[in-house]
């Protein structure tokens, strides 16, 4: 269906002298050792999704600038000038930028977990990694599929024509929610294993940081809208955590409750916390809440950094709530 460049194949062992197994690490701790590798692999699959999303953004914008159809203010224009196309392009860019920032945040914590001088710092960073890995993998890859699909929509009928490459991006993106542990498994890992083992402390610490970011944003008039949306999402996530933890403690229905809540809670974790990444850079100008910024067809730096921020504030965050 896609990823035709992947050397996926079947390996057979032991046809001649029998396969020999070697112990790696300590006896009885194989699963723990395996997750060192799996965490890195799942993080990289999330990055793969972000890469496809970025390519879809670039390709859709290039086509929208080139394709001329209809009029705006009485003059013939590129489809990038039409507000519904602008909406799709901004949605693609806003989500891709936030996903990239989230993956980089997780990568920074992975480095801290390995290289920080103090043991307490390493443990705290590892706890944050354990929470972020399933979110990065599941949410980034789910969003990659949606973003690639939006890219086809921007192309219109040409999106179904192979020579544009838009359809290939969707096919390539579709494997990422499946391999290295399906996104349903990522959600179960977060809701069952990660929340259950520490009573939600690691995720609560992440929400604390999101709330601190929200407060800093809300203190500025030009960033007030993002700060308020982010604070509301964080509060909703705390409430969702409480529901999952309470349901999981039921002696008869606990396991079923966790499975029922897993995927929504994983997505909620991402949709509530990811928008905080838009507010981290200190260089957002005062155009945050402006909707009047045009899309010049000849401007290579479009969109201005504030436009994805405003889009996320108005559409992505409410979709989580």
UniProtKB/TrEMBL annotation:
Any GO MF annotation of the entry: oxidoreductase activity, acting on the CH-CH group of donors
Acyl-CoA dehydrogenase/oxidase C-terminal domain mapped to chain residues: 28-193
Gene3D superfamilies: Butyryl-CoA Dehydrogenase, subunit A, domain 3 (1.20.140.10)
Alphabetized Pfam families for the sequence: Acyl-CoA_dh_1 (PF00441)
EC number: 1.3.99.-
Leader sequence residues: none
Keyword entries, A-Z: Flavoprotein, Oxidoreductase
Organism annotation: Halomonas elongata
Protein name (database record): Acyl-CoA dehydrogenase
InterPro entries noted in UniProt: AcylCo_DH-like_C, AcylCo_DH/oxidase_C, Diverse_Acyl-CoA_DH
Superkingdom of origin: Bacteria
């Amino acid at each position: 269906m896609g990823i035709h460049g992947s050397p996926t194949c079947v390996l057979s062992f032991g046809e001649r002298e029998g396969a020999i197994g070697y112990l790696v690490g300590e006896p009885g701790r194989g699963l723990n050792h395996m997750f060192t590798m799996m965490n890195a692999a799942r993080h990289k699959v999330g990055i793969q999704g972000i890469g496809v999303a970025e390519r879809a953004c670039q390709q859709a914008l290039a086509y929208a600038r080139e394709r001329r159809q209809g009029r705006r203010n009485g003059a013939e224009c590129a489809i990038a000038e039409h507000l519904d196309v602008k909406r799709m392009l901004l949605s693609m860019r806003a989500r891709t930028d936030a996903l990239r920032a989230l993956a980089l945040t997780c990568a920074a914590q992975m480095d801290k977990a390995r290289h920080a001088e103090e043991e307490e710092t390493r443990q705290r960073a590892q706890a944050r990694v354990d929470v972020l890995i399933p979110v990065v993998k599941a949410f980034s890859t789910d969003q990659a599929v949606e973003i690639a699909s939006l890219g086809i929509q921007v192309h219109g009928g040409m999106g179904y024509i192979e020579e544009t490459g838009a359809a290939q991006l969707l096919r390539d993106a579709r494997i990422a929610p499946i391999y290295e542990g399906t996104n349903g498994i990522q959600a179960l890992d977060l809701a069952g294993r990660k929340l259950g083992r520490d009573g939600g402390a690691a995720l609560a610490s992440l929400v604390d940081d999101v709330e601190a970011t929200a407060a800093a944003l809300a203190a500025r008039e030009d960033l007030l809208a993002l700060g308020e949306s982010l604070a509301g999402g964080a509060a909703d996530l705390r409430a969702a955590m409480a529901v999952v933890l309470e349901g999981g403690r039921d002696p008869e229905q606990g396991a079923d409750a966790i499975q029922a809540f897993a995927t929504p809670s994983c997505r909620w974790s991402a949709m509530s916390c990811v928008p905080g990444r838009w507010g981290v850079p200190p260089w957002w100008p005062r155009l945050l809440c402006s909707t009047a910024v045009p899309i010049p067809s000849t401007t290579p730096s479009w969109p201005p950094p504030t436009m994805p921020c405003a889009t996320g504030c108005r559409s992505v965050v409410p979709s989580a709530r």
